[in-house]
């Protein structure tokens, strides 16, 4: 046992007073809680079940933290778009790497929600009304920025001016994949003009003419290393996205079975259909071509 009896004494230099700093006019000692607005953040959980069910806080925190991570994913992907458009590939790759780590955290979070049993969820599910994760505008924004655009989705947010404005803006902009293909064209790769001039408001669809472009990159990686590395980063990103979708599907299935979603979707059936969606189809298709 130490002389302090197991207590760690506070060091003299630790700040104890916050607010205006009398020793430095015009400066403020900012506390951790004030910087993070913890009063607002920690008071933003409002269970609606009556009487309040113990497990509803888990359900709320799970979804709120997911929305915070999605906010950061969107922030990073929009920066990736800008870097690719400016031929600044290194920070674009750094952004993609960061997104991949966030995706892993989002996927791991499903294991926490999976501790919510069907009988526990049934105690408060009816109180959720028509609210549903299907209505997450940030999730839709991430899909849009990656190229899975669906103008009909914007109609779901007629009630939310902020969400509608953001999705409309992203609908009109080139996706991350569009910007990468334009980057390749500017750096000597034979990307079809039809792809470069396509209507970016529409979802990207499989283009067989891109396969020779990617085959050359993969089979001559020593000459096209940066493009090759970016291709693999995008494949990682899509694979992580699909793993997240799968964990979402299985968590919903183990919690409510095949019941309809609270927002009116078919639930598990709708989520299973999303597993067929792809952002970068040519990056997967080219694997069949390589070495053949």
Provide a compact summary of the structure.
The protein is mainly α. Helices cover 57% and strands 1% of the residues.
Task: Describe the fold and architecture.
This protein has 292 residues and is mainly α. Helix content is 57%, strand content 1%. It has 14 helices and two strands. The chain has a two-stranded antiparallel ribbon. A hairpin with a 7-residue loop joins strand 1 and strand 2. The longest helix is centred in the C-terminal third of the chain and has 32 residues. The termini are far apart. This is Tryptophan 2,3-dioxygenase. Heme-dependent dioxygenase that catalyzes the oxidative cleavage of the L-tryptophan (L-Trp) pyrrole ring and converts L-tryptophan to N-formyl-L-kynurenine. Catalyzes the oxidative cleavage of the indole moiety. It is an enzyme of class 1 (oxidoreductase).
Secondary structure blueprint with pairings:
Elements: E1 19-20, E2 28-29, H1 32-36, H2 38-41, H3 56-85, H4 89-113, H5 118-122, H6 137-146, H7 151-154, H8 161-172, H9 176-186, H10 193-196, H11 211-219, H12 225-256, H13 268-274, H14 281-289
Antiparallel strand pairs: 1-2
Catalytic activity: L-tryptophan + O2 = N-formyl-L-kynurenine
Enzyme class: oxidoreductase
Subunit structure: Homotetramer.
Instruction: Name the average pLDDT.
Output: 93
Into which percentage range does the β-strand content fall? under 5%
Quick one: overall form?
globular
Tally of extended strands?
Answer: 2
Rounded Rg: 24 Å
